[in-house]
């Protein structure tokens, strides 16, 4: 992504009830720092003061937000006790407030919201699809939306509601232990989004801890923030390799069931058989990042079109049989140009590449080789592969394939293989697959 300030993405972030823009900025510090060279985040504070004056409505002064005491002053976009379930809500103060803010700081490429802010963000995204309100707010259609502990309730504007399906890509973070909004309540927002992805985190009604959301949110913004991505007609399959310990993290893996040399050979043999299985449509293509290609080089150069994404790194050596591109988007463009002469398409790589691959709607299948010392059991069933593909855990969009389906697709009759780990302990390697509903 670009680092020139004039080309940075601009994202509007709306806080929850009883908070402020500054507070949300603090909670999203990790994401801001991750994307500091590529994205500018904006945090307006709601115009309704909720403390010190018993909820008297009044506009906050954006130029002097730091002057008020956030420990004793909280803000909202409307008072939740002023509207019953049967009443139509029209937060005029907030509309005027946002229109002025967007006029000064916008327009914006993306929108984010937490709790009450997510409801306002979703409605604002709907209004921004209508020419009349594009002019009023000074805001074009958003490219993407990210919602934390979100929900949806239609808000009125000019006395009317406009319930429109949101076609922009959306990412939804839900807390497993949210005691403020149930998953069913959050489903009301997910259902109005046509292109939604859901990620659960092990928290409550909150912005999750950085390691639970930063990488996924950053990749989502990276993927959808800049223009349209190539639409490839070929269905893509992700292959998730078992994570290997590295020198820096060896102590963290000391108690984990990672691959030994026997398993490493077994895994590569299985992957080689799957990706090189002949297709009547043409030669198979495998997309990988540079590190993964170096690890699996001996199998990715056999009877395959190998496409390596360098992502700014310099290959140690260049091979005429390998095609190098700088970004995942360039890889998709090459796939699109060759899609009439290729067979199956696979993506194998690190967590970031797999997450980007999963965001493509043309990705329909996930294949994993996993290992366990005991009888293979997973609750939830994707727990051991969620290290690489966080969207897979708890997802209702992916269905675990039956053994017969795995055999038919991969051509492998044996789905379980007995081996040993580095300490000599017996371990069961299992081939698994999920398909997108």
Automatic annotation (TrEMBL):
Pfam family of the protein (one): FSH1
The Serine hydrolase domain extends over: 6-215
Q: Show the GO MF annotations.
A: hydrolase activity
* Domain of life, per lineage: Eukaryota
Record's Gene Ontology CC terms? Answer: cytoplasm; nucleus
Query: What InterPro entries does the record tag this protein with?
Result: AB_hydrolase_fold, DHFR-like_dom_sf, FSH-like_dom, LovG
The alphabetical list of record keywords is: Hydrolase
Quick check: keyword Protein biosynthesis in the entry?
Answer: no
Keyword check for Hydrolase: yes
Instruction: Quote the protein name from its UniProt record.
Output: Serine hydrolase-like
Q: What organism does the UniProt record list as the source?
A: Schizosaccharomyces osmophilus
